[in-house]
Amino acid sequence: MININILKPTSANFQNYLYIGSGLIFISIFDVILRSFFNVNFSTSLPGILNFFLPLIIGLVGFQMIRLEYSGNRLVDKINQSVNNNTFNAGLTLVIIFLTLLVIPPALNWMIFEATISGDTRDACVATEGACWTYIKVWFRRFMYGMYPNDFHWRINTAFILLISFAFVGYFMRGKLKSYITFYYAIFYPIIAFVIINFLISGGSFGLEWVETNAWGGLSLTFIVSFFGLIFCFPLGMILALGRRSELPVIRYISIGYIEFWRGVPLITVLFMSSVMFPMFLPSDAFVDKLIRVIAAIILFEAAYVAEVIRGGLQALPRGQYDAAKSLGMGYWRMQIFVILPQALKLVIPGIANTFLALVKDTPLIFVVGLSEVVGMLQMAKTNPKWLGYAMEGYIFASILFWAICYAMSKYSQYLELKYKTER
Amino acid sequence: MNHRIKSIIPQLLTLLFVVAVIGFFTINAQLNMDERGIDFGYGFLNQESSFDVQFSLIEYDGSHSYAKAYLVGLLNTILVSVLGIIFCTIIGVIVGIARLSPNYLIKNTAAWYVEFFRNVPLLLQIFFWYYAALRALPLPENTEPLFGVTYLTVKGYYIPRFIWENFDILFYSILAAIISIVFVRNYARKLQEEKGQQLPVLLISVGLLLLFPAITFATGMVQLEVALPVLKQLSKTSFIYAEGLSVPPELLALVLALSLYTATFVAECVRAGVQGVSKGQKEAAASVGLTSNQILKLVIMPQALRIIIPPTTNQYLNLTKNSSLAAAIAYPDLVLVFAGTALMQTGRAIEIVSITMLTYLTLSLAISLLMNWYNKKIAIKEK
Q1: What is the mean pLDDT of the segment spanning A76-84?
Q2: pLDDT tens digits for A42-59?
Q3: Does A63 share its domain with A139?
Q4: How many CA atoms, within 13 angstroms, populate the side-chain half-sphere of residue B184?
Q5: How big is the CA angle at B308 (ends B304 and B311), to the nearest 5 degrees?
Q6: A41, A42, A195, B159: which one has the fewest Cβ atoms less than 10 Å from its Cβ?
Q7: pTM, to two decimals
């Protein structure tokens, strides 16, 4: 008990305790820095475990000595409140600081200081211990465009630029045109998108050489699959959600059956189905392209999830909204379109964003049918005999890529949520 | 009359549409199968499968039937799911609570973890662990022991194997302990309601749970031997650890990726649950004189759990379905063994894919029923 009392400061002697305590904390951090950066260890004479935990013990004693309810020093008070309010928290704080110090230098070394990015062959990387970004540089086009012929990459770029510019058309619709904005995005835009991708990327007419979908790949394929997945699964999910809330029993049970079925099976088996089982269900002379089958499977699958999210929004609306709409003499569709859905969709923006994120993150699964987007291309590059042994770099590159896409999407959904937030 | 027609016509149209689609597919399937000379049926399940599976919980080789191969795949899927659920719960609860910590560093570390791991596709994470992280481990002959008796090598994780004698007696003793604990709890509740006395239920329960198995050991009815992994030379350059239990790297990578990925979602559920309990509850509990442990156990947790459990169940379901990604790194789960190898050999796409889907559907429904039952049990009983 006495021991602890000695370590406990009072407001009278706090000044001295503060000097000693912060000194001890600095010593402990300094010790870890020495161990991490310079491989020097002062306390090797001590027995193994004590040696290992020495910085932690010194640091804990230091934190113990500066812990005072109110010290008058603003910085010390802030530290005490946020990271040092009891021994357990102080210990965790130290562990996190030490781990960062131990992990960051080697990681930075590997990723930046000893890494190579020059050169065009593997030889550039042989000499160094660090990461081989040359590998990413050489394969970059493959990761972006897949096996699409190099000469035609401009077609993919143009198609995407066109798609994005058509997406912004809604921004410039003013006056009378503005009432058609939903119509434009729901019906007209998907058709434009399909036409662009069909004629520009797929080719086959207007003097453009035909490129079969097997050659498509990389990030552009991720975008194509997620793009069509997003724009089609949303309306389908909306209809299913309305169906599940319908008063007509046949429609309700069909919707429930559909939703529960697709939510109960993994996407990978759905893709299997679309590739091996679906051709059996078509007339023997009919042929549907693999990519279209896969996108259709993803749409049907994700629509069930979207439906459940939207149902949550529909259920959250108070009954009064329905009653009010009906008392104005609105029919079912007018009520849904003008009163219920706008409010319900506003409520479920975060949920829908999560579903869309899941869709983007699910696109790598199309590898099971032999289409390779970014992750699939990584697997291909990894097994290339000229570039063996650089799997780590590839995975880090792809994780950062996907992380950036998903992070941007989630931030955008948060912005939308704020924008459409109304007082309730 | 008018209203009736209005409600019947859309239903009829929907029904017609669904029947037409299903009918179109069935007729085509029939025609296609006739053309190729395949007849629909599940008889192939009894045929000899003639393929081997690398990792199996039950005895299996090529001479067994397709039905047995299906069982092997199913058990492997369940194994991954159960392990994943256990670990993702542990990690998720810790991270979820860490995100609520007043400690600035802990809160932000947890937030970074969640932000990063949930935004990277699961398949990429599985590949990362399997092809990059676990491949960097040392060969068996160069491995330093972890915790003294286990070996984490590039060929898998070798752990000691327990060899039980009369395991059933131990099992019955644990069962007896659990039953007596139930009795003790009921008795304790009665005692508290009638006389206001409290029994140290937790201590007694732990004591009973230790005491009963200990008696079976002491009397020599149950014996336990531990087989430690021992380095064994297969050929000049190839070593493995024999005797012990070996966890293949595919399983390790899969469990790691699944639990780290799902834990981020569980963490968010836990955080939402604890935040969902209003501050007034805690203050009210403190003002009637409960200790901080009692507040957590009797006031906060029961209310938080009600918010936490439904979304967490969904995450468990997702984990189970995501375990099918095992096929990507050749872990012999249901999809790889049955919808992969067996389908290639027999060519019975419709039968096999339908069985696989039905299995996952049943697993999902089973978990959600179980969780619904639990959810109902802990729901508020309003009077």
Answers
A1: 77
A2: 766 666 677 777 778 888
A3: no
A4: 18
A5: 160
A6: A195
A7: 0.85
